[in-house]
Amino acid sequence: MQAAAAWRRHLLDGNISPTTAAAISAFRSASQPALTPQGLGGADGARYMSARAPAVKGTGHLVRKGTGGRSSVSGIIATVFGATGFLGRYLVQQLAKMGSQVLVPFRGSEDCHRHLKLMGDLGQIVPMKYNPRDVDSIKAVMAKSNVVINLIGREYETRNYGFDEVNHHMAEQLAMISKEHGGIMRFIQVSSLGASASSPSRMLRAKAAGEESVLKEFPEATIMRPATMIGTEDRILNRWAQFAKNWGFLPLVDSGSTKIQPVYVVDVAAAIVNSLKDDGTSMGKTYELGGPEIYTVHDLAELMYETICEWPRYIDVPLPIARAIASPREMLLNKVPFPLPTPSIFNKDQINAFSVDTLVSDNALTFSDLGIVPHKLKGYPVEFLVCYRKGGPAFGSTVSEKIRSSEL
Predict the structure, then answer these.
(1) How far apart are the C-alpha atoms of 226 and 193, rounded to whole Å?
(2) Are strands 229-230 and 263-264 parallel, antiparallel or unpaired?
(3) N or C: at which end does the chain have fewer Cβ atoms within 10 angstroms?
(4) Which pTM does this prediction carry?
(5) How far apart are CA 208 and CA 197, in angstroms?
(6) Which of 242, 244, 221, 259 is nearest to 360 (CA)?
(7) Percent of the chain with pLDDT over 70
(8) How many C-beta atoms lie closer than 10 Å to residue 84's C-beta?
(9) Angle between the N-to-C axes of helices 86-97 and 265-277, in degrees from 0 to 180, rounded to the nearest 10
(10) Where's the NAD-dependent epimerase/dehydratase domain (predicted)?
(11) What is the 3-state secondary structure (H, E, C) of the chain?
(12) What is the pLDDT of residue 34?
């Protein structure tokens, strides 16, 4: 077949003008090396994206083609660890929308990633089963990538995964493997606002250790520290609304006086994407991503009640009592032969995290440094809570139409 193709090329070259022949020759020389770009194909001939967008090593920017959109080529081949989580679905959607190929490592059932495949063109979202404790498995899911984004995190411990392993050691291992890879141009570590070695929260201490280890292994990494994220699948307003609907009240630790800076999850995803679009100026930097408004925990609960159109009813729980209520799960975690229920309102580590104010630092890099104006929470970002209204989503457009607790 190669001989026949060469003969046809010879016949064609003999019957065209010199100008056309020169153009064809230039096209062949330009396109031939891109047929098997380094990092995209090997001995097995596997190819995971268009040959028009080869991975480029050792540079701070990416090769792009097209005007934007899912049918363009952003040059990004991103392995997104933790893509099946809350932030992951919004990040995958925005990466796919700009023409990136996204590899989605997953360790559970195939139902975990089904919703993500709809966010891109055919073959654009590539789920890959892996084992987070197997180095070879991790190397396989990032073998074809030039960008690695780590969203792995856990706000409570289970019998199988603790804070240190999930938030620290896994991040360290991903950074180490990415550095050894040689073709990973960008590494983004998503941490948490308030991460500090002196935090009362074990999770935030583990997050801080993870940041330090990532920067040690991959100094060019970008660290993102989002505040408490709000969105349709969040684990704070949804849990509060469910508890308030089921029990008729909401417990607040220390009257909910702690100050926080909640942020819309879509804005966090946009910040990550914008950091990939720059010319490398975000490499090696840490960004603190808080919303435009400062709330107390009580204020945020008021916003929740206002959105579900019910009169608020609270029970003040002193901090020591809240810790005592949450302690049995911590003590029994590794002492019983069965998994314990997922903590909802009384998560001991979250109680500790909310015992101190969590705000963006004065001199920190923020959304504005990435060209983003974050949304205010009131309005669309919390609109998903209307599903908890007793009279249906269209019920209660004014405060006077709220349902009193005595009417529940």
Answers:
(1) 5
(2) parallel
(3) N
(4) 0.81
(5) 6
(6) 259
(7) 81
(8) 22
(9) 40
(10) 79-290
(11) CHHHHHHHHHHHHCCCCHHHHHHHHHHHHHHHHHHCCCCCCCCCCCCCCCCCCCCCCCCCCCCCECCCCCCCECCCEEEEECCCCHHHHHHHHHHHHCCCEEEEEECCCHHHCHHHHCCCCCCCEEEEECCCCCHHHHHHHCCCCCEEEECCCCCCCCCCCCHHHHHHHHHHHHHHHHHHHCCCCEEEEECCCCCCCCCCCHHHHHHHHHHHHHHHHCCCCEEEEECCEECCCCCCHHHHHHHHHHHCCEEEEHHHCCEECCEEHHHHHHHHHHHHHCCCCCCCCEEEECCCCCEEHHHHHHHHHHHHCECCCEEEECHHHHHHHHHHHHHHCCCCCCCCCCCCCCCHHHHHHCCCCECCCCCCECHHHHCCCCCCCCCHHHHHHHHHCCCCCCCCCCHHHCECHHHC
(12) 37
Q: Is the pLDDT of residue 274 over 90?
A: yes
Residues in the chain: 408
Tell me which fold the domain 152-407 belongs to: Rossmann fold (3.40.50)
CB 150 within 8 A of CB 218: no
Q: Where are the domains of the chain?
A: 152-407
Tokens 């606002």 belong to residue: 193
Pair of tokens at residue 167: 């938030």
Cα gap 197→204, rounded to integer Å? 8
- Kindly tell me if the per-residue pLDDT of 247 is higher than 50: yes
Residue 297 has pLDDT above 90, yes or no: yes
* CA distance linking residue 190 with residue 80, whole number of Å: 11
Give the tokens for residue 293: 């408004």
Q: Do 90 and 229 meet the contact criterion of CB atoms below 8 Å apart? A: no
CA 389 to chain centre: 29
Q: Of the candidates 48, 93, 229, which has an alpha carbon nearest to the alpha carbon of residue 153?
A: 229
Residues 193-242: tens digit of each pLDDT? 999 999 999 999 999 999 999 999 999 999 999 999 999 999 999 999 99
Q: ∠ CA(159), CA(160), CA(165), 5° rounding?
A: 115
How many other CB atoms are there within 10 angstroms of residue 105's CB atom?
24
Question: Is residue 38 within 8 Å of residue 54, measured between CB atoms?
Answer: yes
